[in-house]
């Protein structure tokens, strides 16, 4: 894989055991990056790493909780030690609660904010000094189409993802001068365990839920692999002048009313 | 090769971002029709592509004229057999406030930057609709999202491009056609020194201002071409109606 677009680079993907994180981990590895997979679900992280290794790539399994500062520091240290550096950080771990502010419990609000926003702060705080020493780095955060416009019964999720978009811009302004690019992706509905869990939370049959989610110009939901391509673009030198951007990957959902 | 067997049109392909994109498209396997108003520069771009082992034609064309746009698509399809990618890139810039801008300068910017996108897309879409696939990438600007000084007609035209991109994405998504735009910040193209001159600034002073963004520099045409390639390729298969800001963090600030 020495000829890939990310040859010789170390990458860390949070929530890399499933969905968009897993697809991105595999895609980055296919372009030559050595990939550390952080996930609370050790079995899932291990399976993703095995898939990378089976394809001839290099992977590291780091079971951990991204809302724990100690876990984040340890993840960055182990990745840097194993790969000799950390060039790419994909802050992807996320959860959702499909409730209004009248329905959501305070503990669930806090949990959404911790996983979706605070974890980006903690992991980036640990990773940026490593990137700064190298004089370059690329951080990609998973925001959402619902970080730009809102959807029903998802108040905490929308608030958290709006925060990710703006946190991305603030980090881009602060760390661009150090050669570190910070961008986010704003996926529309993508066929992941998280999306299927939303249907469950809302008590909707999955087929009906996916049908409604397909009401966008491209007439379908996305695949994790399609979102992973956007992550690869932002991680690679092809995006060397892209900083502070929110890349919408949603089949046209945000373009306007169909 | 990320554009193997694809056929692309690049308007304003004789210099700057258009030229860099035409070269990159060809390097990724596409056959490219380069359009523009300058024969000599157009032939030079075609020669550069051919030297690198690619295939290209030059079509002398003014995107303000429907008849030229029609001929561009006809010659492309006749030569290469299909049309997969349209990069609406041709653009002009006259730096003026509302008070200073002449009516001719207003019309020129709206006609090239905005109406040109309409005219070219109108001609290209039927071929793409027949194929049930196609990609249009429009060149907007950071100043299509935020305002800039002494650039009223330019800002209006580029803001128009962003919203036209979204409207076209909604209309043609179900036909398998994706429409996105790029919003470059200041890039090292002939447009920039020209702007400096019109504003009565030395290149050094102008560059200092333009580089004042988080990445601390202006962009290169090749970096913008990388974004166009991403949007033109299947790598962005779930993207339509998006505005990809490529500006070193200028708009985030």
Features:
heterodimer, A: 258 residues, alpha/beta, Rossmann fold, 47% helix, 15% strand, B: 253 residues, seven-stranded parallel β-sheet, 7 strands
Describe the overall structure:
The complex is a heterodimer of chains A (258) and B (253). Chain A has 258 residues and is an alpha/beta fold. Chain A has helices spanning 19-30, 42-54, 69-83, 106-134, 155-175, 193-202, 206-213, 224-235; strands at 10-14, 34-39, 58-63, 88-91, 137-142, 180-187, 246-249. Chain A has one domain (10-249): 3-Layer(aba) Sandwich (Rossmann fold). Chain A is 47% helix and 15% strand. Chain A has a 7-stranded parallel β-sheet with strand order 3-2-1-4-5-6-7, sandwiched between helices. The longest helix of chain A is centred in the middle third of the chain and has 29 residues, at 106-134. Chain A is globular. The mean pLDDT of chain A is 97. Chain B is of the alpha/beta class. Chain B has a single domain (7-188, 220-246), classed as NAD(P)-binding Rossmann-like Domain (Rossmann fold, 3-Layer(aba) Sandwich), CATH 3.40.50.720. Helix content of chain B is 47%, strand content 15%. Chain B has helices at residues 16-27, 39-51, 66-80, 103-131, 152-172, 191-198, 203-210, 221-232; strands at 7-10, 31-36, 56-60, 85-88, 134-139, 177-184, 243-246. A 7-stranded parallel β-sheet of chain B has the order 3-2-1-4-5-6-7, with helices on both faces. In chain B, helix 1 crosses helix 8 (221-232), helix 3 (66-80) packs parallel to helix 4 (103-131) and helix 4 runs parallel beside helix 5 (152-172). The model of chain B has no long low-confidence stretch (mean pLDDT 97). Chains A and B meet through helix 5, helix 8 and strand 7 of A and helix 5, helix 8 and strand 7 of B.
